[in-house]
């Protein structure tokens, strides 16, 4: 819908998130979908801005991270502090929640390249708890090898806006195209047609 609205052609290629961000940084790919803001990413990627600030009105959607623990575990999170945590929290490589956890004084294991690898390690008891995008966490709860063994800890760890980002080199050469895409994202996201298709803002790192 976004590409059609601007007359542009977008080529989408799936890849592990860490490799995706590395591709944007190196200039091997134009951009990435969908990224939350971090100071580190802003060194090599461009986000929609307004008056020098992040322009949340041109976000793709809002999503959050959720903590999962094995049933019977006493690991807790009250929205400010963790309790009964004796080991690192697992995250997928290059996911932004890792820097949040480190800032909160938590040890992090980011040695899983895909959500499935992270979930398998978690299910095997290698990790006491893991942090996943909320949509991924809900999907994980339906996996046969996890369904009766894990539970979501409330409240969510974070909630953030997510954006279509572009490498600085690509943006410098295609400013109008990128700005038009960002503006079309806002227009479509707020349209009655889109809202009828999406019960709420959808999950996306």
UniProtKB/TrEMBL annotation:
Protein name: Uncharacterized protein
The organism's place on the tree of life at top rank: Bacteria
């Amino acid at each position: 819908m976004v590409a059609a609205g601007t007359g542009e052609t977008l080529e989408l290629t799936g890849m592990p998130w860490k490799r995706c961000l590395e591709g944007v940084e190196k200039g091997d790919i134009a951009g990435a979908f969908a990224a939350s803001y971090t100071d580190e990413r802003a060194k090599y990627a461009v986000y929609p801005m307004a008056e020098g600030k992040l322009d949340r009105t041109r976000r793709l959607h809002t999503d959050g991270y959720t903590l999962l623990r094995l049933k019977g575990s006493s690991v807790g999170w009250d929205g400010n502090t963790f309790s009964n945590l004796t080991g690192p929290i697992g995250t997928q490589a290059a996911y932004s929640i890792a820097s949040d956890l480190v800032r909160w004084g938590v040890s992090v294991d980011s040695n899983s390249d895909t959500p499935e690898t992270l979930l398998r390690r978690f299910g095997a008891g290698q990790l006491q708890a893991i942090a996943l995008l909320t949509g991924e966490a809900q999907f994980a709860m339906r996996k046969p090898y996890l369904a009766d063994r894990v539970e979501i800890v409330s409240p969510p760890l974070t909630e953030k806006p997510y954006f279509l980002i572009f490498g600085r080199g690509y943006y410098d050469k295609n400013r109008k195209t990128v700005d038009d895409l960002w503006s079309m994202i806002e227009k479509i996201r707020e349209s009655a047609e889109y809202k009828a298709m999406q019960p709420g803002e959808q999950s996306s790192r």
